[in-house]
């Protein structure tokens, strides 16, 4: 009798996992979306602080704390260290999964042949995260989204030039909206006196790199068995080597060696935290897609960008004009509309495909569409 009850309890628990209640489904969606927003926004603000921080005094009643200003003029070194953290976490989690089976994580064999096959993508990957962090160094967080908003436009152009794939007229119209919003934003940022043309140039180059990253990802994903985590590990592993001559050419070894806070515990905690956040972006992005849908994921990313902009304006006590806010709205609306149009096209193409292959196709295509997962995460 007791064995029958235990068997019934196991069956009930298994059925509840397979068929969660409406509240459990809502709870999973809310948790996934919240995690995505927290890690994504947190990573942007944290990287901005590491790249161009100033002293900030924060007071709560009688408790006063002054955040130090590191001002390490070595953005490539900061990115290199975050890549190192990502590689370490991938190898560590793979080892724990293999030896203890607490959770499932793909194996991470280090193969020189696979590394060479991934190398072209890694070159684009290094350019992408370098330009992205250089953009963040020179522009404010509030302008950050608009400054690198041309990713969608370059994605359409590069897909046509490299892959020969055409885009619908509706999608091109959405790109036109994004371009208009971008130039309006640049104009209004200049009107406020806080525009950095260097940051804008880096933002445009970052957008181009993201589009190329999406195309090369589709080409080399089969080399790592269609495993996104394995591709992340090889990308970051190659980046550790590729960054070294770039740091030497940029004079960053000397900047790091003579850095006043090189042995500051807080500095290294924030550096490591940035790497952990970058690593977690890969997980929470996939989690949000799984808990919702590719379309909802991109809508969430667009809404997150709007919230991030508002938070930055409030946090840094910035004053923006109505046209400045209009430029942000135009870019956000154009990006959301493009996502919706492309999702309809993807649904038509996948209408005869199996759910598994459709999910994989959507996930791969989102690698180049999601600005946070592609541009912020290392």
Automatic annotation (TrEMBL):
Source taxon at top rank: Eukaryota
Signal peptide boundaries: none
| Entry keyword annotation includes Transmembrane | yes
Segments of skewed composition (Basic and acidic residues) = 360-372
Membrane topology note: Multi-pass membrane protein
Q: Name one GO cellular component term.
A: membrane
One Pfam family name is TPT
* Primary residence: membrane
Stretches the record annotates as Disordered: 349-378
What InterPro entries is this protein classified in?
EmrE-like (IPR037185), Sugar_P_trans_dom (IPR004853), TPT_transporter (IPR050186)
Keyword Transport among UniProt keywords: no
Cellular localization per UniProt: Membrane
Give the stretches traversing the membrane.
29-50, 70-93, 143-163, 170-186, 198-216, 237-259, 265-286, 322-341
Which PANTHER family does the entry link to? SOLUTE CARRIER FAMILY 35
According to UniProt, the name of this protein is Sugar phosphate transporter domain-containing protein
* Source organism per UniProt: Caenorhabditis nigoni
């Amino acid at each position: 009798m007791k064995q029958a009850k235990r068997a019934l309890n196991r069956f009930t628990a298994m059925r509840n996992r397979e068929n969660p209640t409406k509240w459990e489904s809502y709870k999973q969606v809310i948790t996934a979306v919240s995690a995505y927003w927290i890690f994504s926004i947190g990573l942007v603000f944290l990287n901005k602080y590491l790249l161009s921080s100033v002293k900030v005094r924060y007071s709560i009643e009688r408790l006063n704390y002054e955040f130090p200003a590191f001002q390490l003029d070595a953005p490539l070194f900061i990115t290199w260290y975050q890549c190192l953290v990502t590689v370490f976490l991938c190898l560590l989690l793979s080892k724990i999964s293999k030896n203890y089976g607490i959770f499932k994580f793909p194996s991470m064999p280090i193969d020189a042949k696979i590394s060479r096959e991934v190398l072209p993508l890694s070159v684009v990957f290094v350019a992408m995260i370098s330009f992205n962090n250089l953009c963040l160094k020179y522009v404010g967080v509030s302008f950050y989204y608009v400054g690198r908003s041309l990713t969608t436009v370059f994605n359409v152009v590069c897909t046509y030039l490299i892959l020969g794939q055409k885009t619908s007229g509706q999608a091109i119209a959405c790109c036109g909206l994004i371009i208009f919003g971008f130039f309006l934003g640049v104009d209004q940022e200049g009107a406020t006196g806080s525009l950095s043309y260097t940051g804008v140039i880096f933002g445009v180059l970052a957008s181009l790199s993201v589009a190329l990253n999406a195309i090369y990802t589709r080409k080399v994903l089969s080399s790592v068995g269609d495993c996104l985590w394995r591709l992340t590990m090889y990308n970051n592993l190659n980046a550790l080597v590729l960054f070294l001559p770039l740091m030497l050419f940029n004079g960053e070894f000397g900047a790091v060696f003579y850095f006043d806070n090189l042995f500051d515990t807080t500095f290294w905690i924030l550096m490591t935290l940035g790497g952990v956040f970058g690593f977690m972006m890969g997980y929470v992005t996939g989690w949000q897609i799984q808990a919702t849908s590719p379309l909802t994921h991109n809508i969430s990313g667009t809404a997150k960008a709007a919230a991030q902009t508002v938070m930055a304006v409030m946090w840094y006590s910035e004053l923006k004009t109505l046209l400045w806010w209009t430029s942000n709205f135009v870019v956000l609306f154009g990006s959301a509309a493009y996502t919706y149009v492309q999702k309809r096209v993807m649904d038509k193409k996948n209408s005869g495909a199996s759910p598994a292959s459709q999910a994989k196709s959507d996930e791969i295509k989102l690698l180049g569409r999601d600005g946070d997962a592609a541009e912020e995460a290392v």
